[in-house]
Design goal:
Elements lengths: L1 H16 L1 H27 L6 H23 L3 H30 L6 H23 L8 E2 L3 E2 H25 L8 H23 L3 H25 L2 H6 L2 H7 L3 E6 L4 E4 L19 H12 L2 E2 L6 E5 L4 E13 L2 E11 L1 H15 L9 H11 L7 E8 L2 H8 L1 H18 L5 E4 L4 E7 L3 H15 L12 E8 L6 H16 L18
Antiparallel strand pairs: 1-2, 3-4, 3-8, 5-6, 6-7, 7-8, 9-11, 9-12, 10-11
């Protein structure tokens, strides 16, 4: 170690003797800083890259090199030279902080607020004030030394530099491990720049170098760091760096994402998700996924959707929510590590599904079930516990004649009036469907002929009191039959009800087949 220190001192003496080399070093650093400052200004004016923080870092480096070039001139005047020295020390205090803030701007989505600036500039400001007090009153800092050789203010500065440097490294590492590999090159540049500063300051602190060697270390650090930082935000500007950060991506999701272990325990979730509209209770660490799902149902009064067991219908404070739980395997090279559960609100999509379903199974004119729903219902009701099954068939009278003479709007009015009456007097539990233009079917499980007679009588009596302009009094012909066991064929029983209706209507009509159900396919 002594040989290294002796070598540094020897180089320092040679630099002092070769003043031209000394000047060239500072001129080179000054030129680099000026060139990149104006390049940053140019790209900023073109709005291609946000480079304000980079220019804020270049400016004090320019001042630092320029003041060093002036120091020999002002050094012949004691007072003026002392104040130039204060300027050099001041920018040395500020530059590392500006480097850290520039890194912050590049890799963090958290804004640099006034509070942040005050927090990080208060120590440099205090140290600059102490140096100024030393100039005004030399006694102020004469005896403040620690360990017998290190001034207290310089020790404070070195500690603060370590804090700033560590913070800069952490900012980079925080985003570095979260970024995809193809996006990490810009962070490599920033880590290189921070390392250059850290090495230069480390040489000064550890070896207690002569000032000229320490200044050369700073020259090298600044000359390396400026191009690296300038290249970093062209390789990937701050927006690209931030948007590839996993933490930022997960905190920006509008869905809730939960990681689940192979045993089914919840390990983590995106705490800061943007899904403010879904009032889900927060998961608990190591809570089993089934327990969390049950807790959602209990807390929010939820139910499992009839369409899919992975959809929960829950009641929020203001409206109903529909949540889809989708599972994804977390695996690598064929080895499974756990699961990712994504919870997405699908309320709008689910509402559309319900509307489509309603259109598929309901008659839009009357609100009754349609033929699709009727076929499904017949299949469900053709079971032993539904027997005897009452089948009532109705056919609207004179609908074709009304449509031909008065138009379909008049015919629709007649159908609406009749179906409203049917819905009014339909017994509880009865299934009512419009299976054709003028055909209505009513199915009743565990019913008999008396109930059919009562229903038909009430409907007909009510219709006699209705008078529609241009159409007159609407009416409907009825017939019914009873399926007493599952051994009977439904279509045969339906034909009997249809035939009974036709006898009531007119023996001139052809037999209707709209209510016949397609026979199940045989494999």
């Amino acid at each position: 170690m002594e040989y290294i220190e002796d070598a540094f001192y020897l180089i320092g003496e040679q630099l002092e003797e070769g003043s031209a080399v000394w000047v060239l070093l500072f001129v080179f650093t000054l030129a680099v800083a000026v060139i990149y400052f104006f390049r940053g200004l140019y790209v900023c004016s073109r709005r291609s890259v946000e480079s304000q923080s980079f220019m804020a870092l270049c400016a004090p480096i320019i001042a630092w090199a320029f003041l060093f070039l002036l120091e020999p001139f002002w050094g012949i005047y004691h007072d003026e030279g002392t104040w130039v020295y204060l300027g050099i020390v001041s920018v040395e205090f500020i530059i590392p902080v500006l480097l850290m803030l520039h890194i912050w701007k590049q890799v963090s989505y958290l804004p640099i607020t006034k509070g942040v600036l005050i927090k990080w500039l208060v120590v440099p400001a205090a140290l600059i004030a102490i140096e100024a007090m030393k100039i005004v009153d030399p006694w102020f800092g004469s005896d403040y030394e620690i360990f017998g050789q290190v001034p207290a203010d310089m020790l404070a500065w070195n500690i603060f530099f370590i804090v700033v440097t560590v913070r800069s490294f952490l900012l980079c590492f925080n985003v570095f491990y979260q970024m995809p590999k193809h996006m990490r090159r810009s962070t490599y540049n920033m880590l290189g720049a921070i390392s250059a500063f850290a090495i230069a300051r480390g040489l000064r602190m550890y070896f207690i170098l002569p000032e000229n060697i320490a200044d050369v270390a700073d020259i090298v650090a600044y000359t390396i760091a400026i191009p690296l930082l300038f290249g970093a935000f062209f390789i990937a500007n701050s927006s690209n760096v931030i948007v590839t950060s996993r933490e930022f991506v997960f905190s920006s999701l509008s869905t809730t994402v939960i990681t689940v272990s192979l045993k089914g325990n919840i390990l983590d979730w995106n705490h800061n998700n943007k899904n403010g509209s879904s009032p889900l209770p927060n998961p608990k660490y190591k809570e089993s996924y089934p327990d969390y799902r049950e807790r959602i149902i209990d807390v929010m009064g939820g139910t499992v959707s009839t369409h899919d067991e992975n959809i929960l219908c829950v009641q929020g404070p203001d409206r109903e929510y529909h949540l889809l739980f989708t599972w994804h395997d977390i695996s690598y090279h064929g080895r499974k590590f756990g699961y990712l559960v994504e919870i997405v609100e699908i309320t709008k999509s689910y509402s559309k599904l319900r509307r489509i379903e309603a259109m598929a199974y309901h008659d839009t004119l009357t609100g009754l079930s349609n033929r699709n729903a009727y076929i499904e219902q017949v299949r469900q009701m053709s079971e032993a516990d539904k027997m005897p099954l009452l089948i009532i068939v109705g056919d609207v009278n004179n609908l074709k004649k009304t449509n031909d003479e008065h138009g379909h709007l008049a015919g629709d009015k007649m159908i609406i009036a009749i179906t409203k009456t049917i819905k009014k007097y339909a017994p509880d539990g009865a299934f009512v469907a419009r299976i054709g233009g003028d055909e209505i079917v009513l199915l009743m499980a565990n019913a008999n002929g008396d109930e059919a007679e009562i229903f038909i009588s009430k409907v007909n009596s009510s219709l006699e009191k209705i008078d529609i302009p241009e159409v007159g009094r609407p009416s409907i012909s009825w017939g019914y039959s009873i399926m007493r066991s599952i051994s009977e064929d439904y279509n045969d029983v339906f034909r009997m009800a249809d035939a009974a209706m036709l006898e009531t209507k007119s023996k001139m009509h052809k037999a209707s087949s709209s209510g016949l159900v397609p026979a199940p396919s045989r494999k």
